[in-house]
């Protein structure tokens, strides 16, 4: 474990406070007009998922835990949780739903994700920037509506709601951004 100054803490870092691990959700350096600069951090306790807010002076030392970042392939989901496999070692790991979080709608068989682990325990997963999905439901194109650059709502694989251009129809494969579920382009396959 390494000591770092509070102002260098970033989202995704794992902090060790009194032997308890926390994953950083947000970190903000605040410079008030009067007084010392502080770092406000919102964290989630890894053991039970409780959110905690902390405030440190920017020059305070904080214990940063060592975490491993590895690629994993998503296999399947069942009553135990979400199952992933390391493509290099073929080791499998089961992850609970609270670790997967909002990423669960993007998980498809074989999708490759980055997983942060600490001593073999999964802390968080990070999706690829873009994924390909299929449009399952959308409104038909109305003639004459193509003159404006309006977008229409569409429901994609996994129930993901996306605003798509008028020329996109049911069955079309599109690429979306996983951070905000926005349309990027039509898939080229």
The profile of the biggest β sheet is: 5 strands, antiparallel
The order of strands across the largest sheet is 9-8-7-10-11
What is the average of the pLDDT values?
Answer: 86
What name does CATH use for the topology of the largest domain?
SH3 type barrels
Compressed to H and E, one letter per element, the order equals EEEEEEEEEHEEEEEEE
List the domain count as a whole number: 3
Distance between the termini: 46 Å
Low-pLDDT stretches are none
CATH A-level architecture of the largest domain? Roll
Strands, count: 16
Rg on CA atoms, Å: 21 Å
Multimerization status: single chain
Q: Strand pairing plus helix content: what structural class?
A: mainly beta
Helix content: under 10%
Number of helices: 1
* 3D shape: flat
Beta-strand content bin: over 45%
CATH top level of the largest domain?
Mainly Beta
Report on this structure.
The protein has 189 residues and is mainly beta. The chain folds into 3 domains: 2-64, SH3 type barrels, CATH 2.30.30; 68-126, OB fold (Dihydrolipoamide Acetyltransferase, E2P) (Beta Barrel); 130-186, Nucleic acid-binding proteins (OB fold (Dihydrolipoamide Acetyltransferase, E2P), Beta Barrel), CATH 2.40.50. The chain is 2% helix and 52% strand. The chain has 1 helix and 16 strands. It has one helix at 97-100, and strands spanning 2-5, 14-17, 20-30, 38-45, 51-57, 61-64, 68-78, 81-85, 92-95, 112-118, 121-126, 130-138, 152-156, 161-164, 173-177, 182-186. It has a 5-stranded antiparallel beta sheet. Strands 14-13-12-15-16 form a 5-stranded antiparallel beta sheet, with no helix packed on it. Strands 2-3-4-5 form a 4-stranded antiparallel beta sheet, with no helix packed on it. A hairpin with a 6-residue loop joins strand 8 and strand 9 (92-95). The radius of gyration is 21 Å and the shape is flat. The termini are far apart. The model has no long low-confidence stretch (mean pLDDT 86). Pathway: Protein biosynthesis; polypeptide chain elongation. It holds the Pfam family Elong-fact-P_C. Keywords: Cytoplasm, Elongation factor, Protein biosynthesis. Residues 131-186 form the Elongation factor P C-terminal domain. Belongs to the elongation factor P family.
